[in-house]
Amino acid sequence: MSSEKVHVEHCKGVNGLDKVILREIRGCSAEVYLYGGQVTSWKNELREELLFLSSKATFKPHKAIRGGIPICFPQFGNIGSLEQHGFARNRVWSVDPDPPPFPSTTSHRAFIDLILGHSEEDVKIWPHRYECRLRVALGPGGDLMLTSRIRNTNTDGKSFTFTFAYHTYFFVTDISEVRVEGLETLDYLDNLKNRERFTEQGDAITFESEVDKIYLSTPTKIAILDHERKRTFVLRKDGLPDAVVWNPWDKKAKAMADFGDDEYKHMLCVEAACVEKPITLKPGEEWRGRQEISAVPSSYCSGQLDPQRALFNR
């Protein structure tokens, strides 16, 4: 029966890079590149693109793909000798040939499991052995779910510490008509002011200039309202206490070679993250983080979504 089809297609993408296309019965889809373990497209049943991907994105080794959902590991930001946001988004992941099954109570069919492990080159710049697993799944209703598991596989008895983020680029119609709900009254670190700590004052976050903030101790659910499109993105997360909100605005957009001058108007990054308090794993220990994003018709106010669709009730 058609409802029993498993919609997972392995094919070639830009510049011949390997990618996987996930499809659900109703027409929703997602594309995942093995380079970076990166989701680059997520479309609803009307084939409308929900993620932003720059028209100038480069699909070449050693350069992160600008848009979609890059994986920031083992660090978020630019600290020490590691490259910006770590190296996971600049490495080729492999497909797990024997993935663990979904619980029998779920009806997920379209999913892929990827693995990234240490290489001898990586050990030179980050002297630890690890295994990073990523499951990308498309729910029957079109929800996009990412689950990461990171294990310390050091054999020398050493712990390691890391920070992490799903650097999600949402496609929005007009950034000046977007608001984010769920982060009001929270403390944040302002990356434009040397990570100085402030408290959010507005009823909701709106945008009229560059923003680069790390919100702390955030709720498990955040809403991004695109008034122009009458669409709301709902982000649910687990194991990721922080949330990064970023838009480069006009000056920074023009300074980025892989970003169109006016593309800042059509994107907003809201990132489930663990930044303020890094995670430490002893050998053999594993960390798990998860985000689920869905797109629902507006209008929507934070906290009023159907509780049956909540993250932990699936």
Automatic annotation (TrEMBL):
It catalyses: alpha-D-glucose 6-phosphate = beta-D-glucose 6-phosphate. The keyword Phosphoprotein does not apply. GO terms for cellular component: cytoplasm. It is an enzyme of class 5 (isomerase). Gene3D superfamilies: 2.70.98.10. GO terms for molecular function: carbohydrate binding; glucose-6-phosphate 1-epimerase activity. The keyword Isomerase applies. The active site is at 167, 271. Keywords: Isomerase. Belongs to the glucose-6-phosphate 1-epimerase family. This is glucose-6-phosphate 1-epimerase.
